[in-house]
Amino acid sequence: MSKLRFAVLVLAIGCSGSAFAQGGDGRGACKTDYDKFCAGTAPGGGRVVACLIKQQNQLSDACKNVLASRKVK
Description:
The chain is mainly α. The protein has one domain. It is built from 5 helices and no strands. The protein is globular and about 25 Å long.
């Protein structure tokens, strides 16, 4: 994944310190899930987060925890 795409993903999730303060640097918690389920989703307007939420049952536990800590349902 390119650095730009990763940066966009981080921004899309919200970049909240509390959301990523899990066991060190959790910024990549949803990277694999994004690549697998949402790679074709254009960033902006909450589209990436919405895509991840649609796949919630298939997400890694780490990504689920990041989304939960952001209170994204």
